[in-house]
Task: structure prediction
Amino acid sequence: MMKLNGFGARPWLAAAAATVLLAGCGGSQNDALPLIKASVSVKTFSMGGMCETIPVRIVPVELRGEANKYANNRTMVLEVAMEGPTDENGAPTCNGSGETLPLAPGDWEFSAPLASGSTKCTRDIQAGGDLSIRLVDGAEGCGGPQAAPAAEDVAPAEGEAPAEGAVPAEGEAASAEASAAG
Result:
């Protein structure tokens, strides 16, 4: 019979403990869920003949569904390295692209400071959806299907009263005053 004493027993016991721990660590069900990564491309005008890295801020707006355990659910910044400038229709233009870290499914806001000002858009990120985000200087949106706007951002239809607490647009205020006076 082998005698385990002193230092000879410690490595054997450590190996046995590690084996028991690893045997109990089975994969979880959401390991099988897809990793959702969006491709982000940026097109902006050159400032002084230079193309600098553009920070694209990615913010969760409303997450829905089940995500892979490696999916991110917090605000992050993607540094997009820009190339150029190239001459596009007489304008010095910078182009760049990058890929996000894995995202949890749901609505995400993408924003970036471009030459003409900040741009932002919201996109519904889903495994089977459009994962191509295009931020173009002077153009609104993400270059694809947008997430549904929040209820408070939607103007009421013609003849429909605005939601309680909503501030009417300038034209609506004037027509409401005219109606009240008439």
Notes: The longest strand covers residues 54-63.
